[in-house]
Amino acid sequence: MLHNDPIAALTPEVIAWRHHIHCNPELGFDENETARFIAEKLRAFGFDEVHEGIGGTGVVGVLRSGTGTRAIGLRAELDALPIVERTGLPYASRNEGVMHACGHDGHTAMLLGAASLLSQSRAFDGTVYFVFQPAEENEGGSLRMIEDGLFERFPVEAIYAVHNWPGLEQGTIAARAGAQMAAVDNFELTFEGFGAHAAMPQLGDDPVLAAGAFVQAVQRIVSRSVDKPRWSSASPRSTAAMSATSCRAGCGCKAPAGFSSPVIPIIARS
Q: Does this model's pTM top 0.85?
């Protein structure tokens, strides 16, 4: 039997797990059914321990082999995004307004596949912790697990994870020194000014104009103000990302459907 034969044999089942998770997506900290599905699988694989409810809906499976005292962690995420799925796929989301659009269904299925294979072979000496994290999408699920004692209860020398990358050629694995992907820091700004009629803008302060200028100017943070680390030969743009994803304005007045208000608003948010 070739080394990859067990992987090939398990692949159809991993795909089925991914399809099941994909069509039953849940948002951050509400991944109750997903967490239950994972815990049941780990117990069926014969894991030494399965812990639920860590940091909310997090799951940790413990697999031991041999007499070694070293330990590592393997991690995947549980949550989906608040997006309406219109793919028409047979395994499309059954939860309207929620979709696995970032690939966490695939990550979780892949980690379950690794859990299945390692539970059968036990081809390692030490402990492997399988960490299934809730609320990766902006909600701080990793911090919640850490605050809940993740690394005190399951100490590791290192923890590993992968993320799908649709633009990468199939069969390719990419890695680099230093930061691999961008972290998330959210912000919201409010621009306030005196409203005025659009025909007499000189009588007011236009917060829409200020917000628009900010959206353009803030891009200079990446292109002009972020220095690249010494170990990197890449351009500054490759080490940071800055995105304004929403801009709203309003003054409380209502215009008829299909029409724009002729009034410059009092508040704009970006």
A: no
